[in-house]
Amino acid sequence: MLATFGLLLVCQLVGEVIVRGVGLTIPGPVIGLTLLLVVLWLRPAVAETLRPTVTVILANLSLLFVPAGVGVIGNLEVLSEGWVALLVVLVVSTLLAMLASVGTFIAVRRLTGGRST
Amino acid sequence: MSGVAELWSYLSTSPLLWLTATVLAYLAADALARRVDNHPLANPVILSVLMVAPVLWLTGTEYASYFEGAQFIHFLLGPATIALALPLWDNRDTIRRSVAPILLALVAGSVTAAGSAILLARAFGLPTEVILSLAPKSTTAPVALGVSEAIGGLPALTAVLVILTGIIGAVIVTPLMGLLRIEDWRARGFSVGVASHGIGTARAFQVNPTAGAYAGIAMALNALLTSMIVPVLVRWLL
């Protein structure tokens, strides 16, 4: 568990240093994710060291959004009088984005002859 | 009575209380969600927030003092994003075979997410500042806040809209895909990751590991694409 945390933190740290050093607009953890992929590519055995802890983290991702979610409740007044319109926009736009993405994925997969599972 | 007051003054100034409350609320929310077979409406983020928020309100606790405890959990979002490398690695062979669907579904989903939000908000006559805050709503919070600030939106409003978008996507994805009879976990996971970032990804992992892996790819790629296309879309559509 500690080895996994150590590696995740090192990847994040290097990611943040790169982002700030080069002045990128991408978040540090996305660079860190890429770095960890490179580590796995160089040392495939690391996957089994990471697996127990990473499985627990990813199965409980929702927990990590609770502090931000609580912040939303206390900050709902920023939506002000346009909140009904905003909610409608959010729901419709999220629905459209999912439809566009899932439709494209399936259509392109069929065109390129990919398997369904 | 002074004993209680002393205890409260200790607890309310130490991170321990709100850290514990957040973890316990989540454990209760997760247990509840499992009891109803992870029904889409029993979203663990919503349930936990509904448990914690009233306690803060009743005890008159400011968000800032709550966050002093909760920040330790919030911080883990960074390491958790990096941890997504493992499911990507596990699925590397199928991902390599679906590069074309992945890239095209990414562009379609990302452009629709931002473009439809801008056009709909304009149709409703919302102020420009609000539209700019809304445009990056489907990407992960740090990117969305950066984009919002860069194009002249209000980061505080964007933060709220990003979380709400995540929750909306996490709640509607399962019924939507069921209705459309889409059984490909890759396509299902990918679309919720594009539209609803990490909260959608959390939902995907709750339902199926392959869906989770594809949601993770979608979220990471959309973080890159949104920061490039939203400034352009805003110029075209506003």
The averaged pLDDT of chain B comes out at: 94
Order of helices and strands of chain A: HHHHHH
Q: Main beta sheet of chain B: strand number and arrangement? A: none
Task: Give the percentage of residues in beta strands of chain B.
Answer: under 5%
User: Could you say how many structural domains of chain B there are in total?
Assistant: 2
The portion of residues assigned to helices of chain B is over 70%
Order of helices and strands of chain B: HHHHHHHHHHHHH
DSSP strand tally of chain A = 0
The percentage of residues in β strands of chain A lies in under 5%
Q: Based on helices, strands and strand pairing, what is the structural class of chain A?
A: mainly alpha
Tell me about this structure.
The complex is a heterodimer of chains A (117) and B (238). Chain A has 117 residues and is mostly helical. Chain A has six helices and no strands. Helices cover 79% and strands 0% of the residues of chain A. The mean pLDDT of chain A is 91. Chain A has two domains: 1-66, no CATH class; 73-117. Chain B is mainly alpha-helical. Chain B has two domains: 2-75, no CATH class; 82-237, no CATH class. Helices cover 84% and strands 0% of the residues of chain B. Chain B contains 13 helices and no strands. In chain B, helix 8 (99-123) packs across helix 12 and helix 10 packs parallel to helix 13 (209-237). The mean pLDDT of chain B is 94. At the A-B interface, helix 1, helix 2, helix 3, helix 4 and helix 5 of A face helix 2, helix 3, helix 4, helix 5 and helix 6 of B.
